[in-house]
Design goal:
Chain lengths: ~425, ~550
């Protein structure tokens, strides 16, 4: 059987292992986690191939496609990028073989399993540098590879995270929770702690692969966030590289819960193991960044704000009993109050938002109820905060949006003592 | 007296193992510091024991030696430094007695500017030999022709102050090109070849053949008129001297080289220039792709023809047949110091190129001897001689042969200062460390290993005459191919990597065969339906004879 496993405790199929043996050793491994990405993956993989040929023609490289069981021909499209002496007639002039391997892991398309497969391949191939490119990164440019790889090649950094030019309303979860909270907790101004396009040294990859976290469902779901947090905790040398534009992707409402699991769940989960670290960290510091830390584009974007507020108000009402277990009475009361406000007056202020998040984080840590229920309960509140962010920045300039995000970050930093008090049980 | 080697064997060149040597470099018999034919004659036993069966001599004709003899001033004699015509005849007989063929260099394209023909030609525009060379009143003709020695020459035209006009030269300016549009030249050069053939030489390596004829509006290479000249020579050769061989020196892409075989009525053999740098590249990259790609692009040649393969020769390791990216990689990999580079190549010997890594030297020789073609071994490479990049031009790879660790490496009894070139004396490659006598005493020396592999190569005609089919195992560091001739089949598997490797080969079509390793003659498991697993140490290679027993 093609994907038969060599051993029950191995994540590598015999076929995958056989292909890795044939690759041998690489300087650069490009990981492509996919699942039914046929619509976008062709040009992405062609750009990666062109980037490798343009910037790293002499280096041993392999593209590893960890696929979650695509049925739309994704893997075939990826495999077409191979350059070898078997496919004759290729017009591509390349110094050496470019290997492309596709492996399918388990039935469920969990990103963590994909990352784990990529990390395992990186370790077995003794990759100096691993790059992960998202199958949604349709605006990938050939120079992304050099922007991500060079800092690691130069031996100056262990982890290169991206910054992008994004639409001002893209990544509201990132700008209103993940970035400011990670920054407040760990003292590093990492703009994309949940990175989809990033690079790391083989050493850092191996270190993360050895973590026990793979047994944890939350860690598997939020492996990219876990990876970044683990790098911070291990004092890895981190930098950011501006990659260019990241296209806005319309998300369905139903996508929010999985996104919360992948990101916020991982961030909340990290608090326990890394308590000593975030407890000790003080004011945040910028990290080395090539290019701008962030750019915002301002094109009009149609967002159904009314629906967001409605879902907030409905959620506050329907999840009353859940919130009682999670939130302090004062916070809950304040949420009830704003839920009653008319749309024109509605505002979920930064201070209350920070307090809410910190109370959720502690509830998550103490598992006052099922952790997954806690994350699900956060969804309507996040929608309320998103409504406020959209309203506050509706007519704002790029600088204005950045100022608002910075103000929120400072609020998170100012609120950190409150988190500690909750954590230590003094509140 | 000449002795026929095997008169009826008209395809001997397909089974040949050629040893390239310059008389000057091999052994000095008269103590003047310069190797000579009597010295070469004394070492014929050595060549016989080595296992080669053809010797290719670089130019030994009278010459001002401004281009190591490729600037000939008399085609009918021997340079006085190397002996006499009688000495040459004795050497030739000696070689033939040992069943060693002799191939000599023939520089058809140009002469020395000291050649009497050129002296007459330049003397006046009315001289009968004026038209033996290519003259012009301007230096603007044939602008599309490239300059070969771009490190030293700015133009292919040179001003002659005597006749106050320009003459054409594709190489150094002291090497005026002969005019092959003139029937008298074609006749005279055939007379030259006939002279040596009648003495008994077995073949010619024809130098710089693409450049014989010039035509306006072309790059003056590979022209139909040039092919016509060669066809005429070949026709005369076959008519008057059947069994003699023509070997082309044409540094061209395979598709451009192919016409030199024509329908089997031009050259018998041609050097495969593009393959050689790609063998070095493949080993450095640890990737078979450069090698398989160039061989995929190599066209079929007539059954009577043959490629001539080499790792190193008397010239720089030419990188002309590479892309800019490949050339840059080769320079950075094999010629880190600028002084190692010359023109579009690398002026280094085999052992230093491979960092004196015995495993890589063996692997490269293993490929040389098992890929389709006739191998040519450059003198001294069988003992791992080094080079001297401080000597100018390509002289660094043309130093005296190292016979012993004693006086002048056993090359000459003269004072060291009188040697035609200084000996290699550095700690790694110097003659005290690298010499024939020492290696004769060591069973596992490179010299003895070379003798063994040449013996294995000669144990079958498959390598020289058989077909090739590449296997494409998924492990790209493994270069595997099957050579076949009649019922005989040989599997060659090379590990191009510096690390141990495993490979699975699809040998199902040879199911039932037993693999017999050709050096130790050990038996390997029988081929079945499953992939055939082989493991390799770094740079290891296997030659297996497939036997159905």
């Amino acid at each position: 059987m093609k994907n038969a496993r060599a051993a029950d405790d191995s994540i590598l199929t015999d076929e995958f292992l056989r292909q890795l043996i044939n690759v041998g050793e690489v300087d650069i491994l490009v990981g492509l986690p996919t699942h039914n990405n046929a619509k976008t993956i062709g040009p992405i993989v062609a750009t990666i191939q062109a980037g490798l040929l343009a910037f790293f023609p002499r280096d041993r490289a392999a593209i590893i496609n960890a696929d979650g069981g695509s049925q739309d021909g994704t893997t075939e499209l990826v495999l077409n990028a191979a350059i070898d002496d078997v496919r004759r007639g290729s017009k591509i002039s390349a110094l050496r073989t470019l290997h492309v391997i596709s492996t399918q892991y388990a039935a469920s398309p969990t990103r963590g399993t994909a990352l784990r497969s990529i990390l395992a391949a990186g370790e077995l191939l003794r990759a100096k540098t691993c790059v992960v490119i998202s199958p949604e990164s349709t605006q990938v440019e050939t120079d992304w590879l050099t922007k991500l790889v060079r800092p690691i090649y130069a031996g100056e950094f262990d982890l290169v995270l991206p910054t992008y030019s994004r639409h001002r309303f893209d990544g509201i979860l990132l700008t209103n929770l993940l970035y400011p909270m990670t920054r407040a907790l760990y003292g590093l101004r990492i703009r994309e702690p949940y990175a989809l396009d990033f690079a790391f040294s083989g050493t850092l990859g191996s270190q993360f692969l050895a973590q026990n976290a793979w047994q944890d469902e939350t860690a598997r779901a939020g492996s990219e966030t876990y990876f970044t947090l683990n790098a911070i905790a291990s004092r890895a040398r981190i930098c950011q590289s501006f990659l260019g534009t990241r296209e806005h992707i319309e998300r369905r409402s139903a996508d929010l819960i999985p996104a919360l699991r992948q990101t916020v769940g991982a961030l909340f989960s990290s608090l326990g193991p890394h308590m000593a670290l975030w407890n000790a960290s003080t004011a945040s510091q910028p990290i080395p960044t090539t290019g701008p830390e962030r750019e915002f584009t301002l094109e009009p974007l149609r967002v159904n704000r009314k629906r967001l507020r409605e879902m907030f108000s409905t959620g506050v009402a329907e999840l009353e009993s859940v919130f009682q277990a999670i939130l302090s009475p004062s916070t809950l009361e304040e949420l009830r109050r704003i839920a009653r406000l008319e749309e024109t007056e509605f505002r979920y202020p930064a201070e209350l938002w920070v307090k809410t998040i910190y109370e959720f984080a502690v509830a998550y840590h103490k598992t006052v109820i099922s952790r997954d229920h806690i994350l699900q309960a956060l969804a309507p509140l996040f929608r309320g905060r998103a409504f406020t962010f959209l309203a506050e920045n509706r007519n704002g300039s790029a600088d204005g949006v950045e100022d608002n995000i910075e103000a929120l970050c400072l609020e998170f930093e100012r609120g950190k003592p409150y988190l500690l008090e909750l954590w230590n049980g003094t509140q | 007296m000449t002795v026929d080697v095997k008169p009826a064997d008209h395809s001997w060149y397909k089974r040949a193992i050629i040893y390239q040597v310059h008389v000057r470099t091999f052994l000095d018999s008269n103590g003047d510091g310069i190797g000579d034919f009597q010295g070469l004659d004394q070492k014929m036993d050595y060549l016989q024991e080595l296992g080669v069966n053809a010797v290719w001599l670089m130019p030994f004709f009278p010459s001002p030696l401004r281009d190591d003899g490729y600037d000939i001033s008399d085609y009918y004699s021997v340079h006085s430094s190397y002996g006499t015509l009688e000495d040459f005849k004795r050497f030739l007989a000696s070689a033939h007695q040992r069943r060693i063929r002799v191939i000599i260099e023939m520089v058809l394209n140009h002469t020395s500017d000291q050649h009497p023909w050129f002296q007459e030609s330049r003397s006046s525009k009315e001289n009968p030999r004026r038209d033996w060379y290519v003259w012009s009143d301007s230096d603007t003709g044939y602008p599309k022709a490239g300059i070969n020695f771009r490190d030293t020459e700015l133009s292919n035209w040179a001003w002659d102050p005597v006749s106050k006009s320009y003459y054409w030269h594709r190489f150094f300016s002291h090497q005026p090109d002969l005019n092959y549009d003139n029937p008298a030249i074609r006749e005279e050069m055939w007379n030259v070849m006939k002279f040596w053939l009648e003495l008994g030489v077995d073949g010619f390596r024809l130098d710089a053949v693409p450049y014989l004829v010039e035509r306006e509006g072309t790059n003056c290479e590979n022209l139909p008129e040039t092919h016509a000249v060669i066809k005429e020579l070949r026709r005369k050769l076959d008519e008057h001297f059947p069994g003699k061989m023509l070997l082309a020196e044409a540094n061209q892409w395979p598709a451009e080289l192919r016409p030199y075989f024509a329908d089997g009525d031009e050259f018998h053999m041609a050097f495969h220039f593009p393959l050689m740098p790609r063998m070095f590249m493949g080993v450095k990259l640890e990737d078979r792709k450069p090698i398989t790609e160039i061989l995929q692009q190599t066209p079929e040649i007539p059954q009577s023809c043959q490629w001539c393969l080499f790792l190193r020769n008397h010239d720089e390791l030419t990188l002309e047949m590479l892309t800019d990216m490949e050339r840059s990689y080769m320079n950075d990999s094999y010629a880190q110091e600028k002084t190692m580079r010359l023109n579009l190549g690398i002026r280094r010997r085999l052992a230093p190129l491979l960092e004196n890594d015995r495993r890589r030297i063996e692997l490269m020789n293993g490929m040389l001897l098992s890929l389709p073609g006739t191998p040519s071994i450059y003198y001294g490479d069988e003992i791992g001689m080094g080079d001297n990049i401080n000597l100018g031009d390509r002289n660094g790879v043309r130093t005296p042969m190292q016979w012993t660790g004693g006086w002048n490496a056993g090359f000459s009894v003269t004072e060291p200062e009188k040697l035609y070139a200084p000996l290699i004396q550095d700690a790694v490659y110097g003659y005290p460390a690298v010499n024939v006598t020492a290696q004769n005493r060591t069973e596992h020396s490179l010299l003895n290993w070379t003798r063994r592999i040449l013996a294995v190569r000669k144990s079958t005609d498959v390598f020289g005459c058989g077909s090739i089919e590449f296997l494409y195992p998924a492990n790209h560091r493994i270069l595997a191919y099957v050579r076949q001739l009649g019922t005989e089949t040989i599997l060659v598997v090379n590990n191009l990597s510096s690390a141990a490797q495993a490979v699975e080969l699809d040998l199902r079509r040879y199911k039932g065969n037993i693999l017999i390793e050709m050096f130790g003659k050990n038996i390997f498991p029988r081929v079945v339906d499953l992939p055939y697993l082989l493991t390799f140490g770094p740079y290891q290679f296997y030659w297996f004879r497939l036997r159905r027993i």
